[in-house]
Amino acid sequence: MWTNFSKFIPSLRWILVLVVLTLIFAIARIPATWAAHFMTQGNTLGLSGVRGTVWEGQARMASIEIDRQHYSLGTLKWDLSPLSLLTLTPCADVNASLETQNIEGRVCAGLGGKVRVSDTSIDAPANLVQAGLPFPVDGQLSANIQSLAMAGGQMQNLKGNLSWTGARVQAEGAWVTLGSYAAEARFDPEQNAIVADVFDLEGPIDIEAETRLPLAGGIFVKGQMEITDDFSDQIQAREWLPMVLDHQQDNRYNIDLQF
Fold first, then answer.
1. In b/e form, how buried is each residue of 42-63, taking b as 16+ CB within 10 angstroms?
2. Cys staple from 220: which of 41, 70, 140, 212, with CB 3.0 to 4.6 Å?
3. 3-class SS string, the chain
């Protein structure tokens, strides 16, 4: 009997190989709509015009809601890592593009609507955040997210940096050029707010300030700044800036604002 079974072992191996290959082929052919269904469960991500496979696909239009604000991501493409399925937290390299807006990085989805983002770069026009500001803005935003965690559309962790180049604001119908700035950002769970340490890169304003953006709404800024004489004359700072900021001496001011 053992002799007969020994003769059957090579055939059994080929049968197992065939089964495994069949399963791999079947999984590889799973339509992208299945992946889209999984990715949009329990969170605020929306996908439409989905095509491709669960491993490599794209959505013609993607959007996400964060703290009741809707953001369009444009065309979304993904490349799923097979090994990540073993931990039940599928991870994919993603790219989302919309006109001058581009997002590229790694996203992992977990149970209960949990989402983790890492090694992600974002480039977008400054007016993308216009809804949270009291005045029109212009320029280009570039962000690098080292780590970000969300659950059910609520932020739980954030670490990264941000730059605003070609910064401009509109005051009384005229655009004012501010220069370029950067910030180191983190999430403060105790105050449920994004905290950014802001500093200048180049331009007429020398600034060091801490900006807090509570997820419940509002903007709070504290710090110091100094402006050049030419810029002070351009915006007529001596006439109105002391009414907004605490004037120290010359062109130096303390900042303590909320919007």
1. bbbbbbeebebbbbebbbebbb
2. 212
3. CHHHHHHHHHHHHHHHHHHHHHHHHHHHCCEHHHHHHHHCCCCCEEEEEEEEECCEEEEEEEEEEECCEEEEEEEEEEEECHHHHHHCCCEEEEEEEECCEEEEEEEEECHHHEEEEEEEEEEEEHHHHHHHCCCCEEEEEEEEEEEEEEECCEEEEEEEEEEEEEEEEEECCEEEEEEEEEEEEEEECCCCEEEEEEEEEECCEEEEEEEEEECCCCCEEEEEEEECHHHHHHCCHHHHHHHCCEECCCCEEEEEEEC
pTM of the entire predicted model: 0.71
| Unique residue bearing structure tokens 């197992």 | 16
Express each pLDDT in 141-190 by its tens digit.
999 999 988 877 678 889 999 999 999 988 777 888 999 999 999 999 88
- Find, among 104, 110, 106, 71, the residue nearest to 87 by Cα: 110
Phi, psi of 86 (to 5 degrees): -65, -25
Length of the chain: 259
Residue with tokens 């931990």: 87
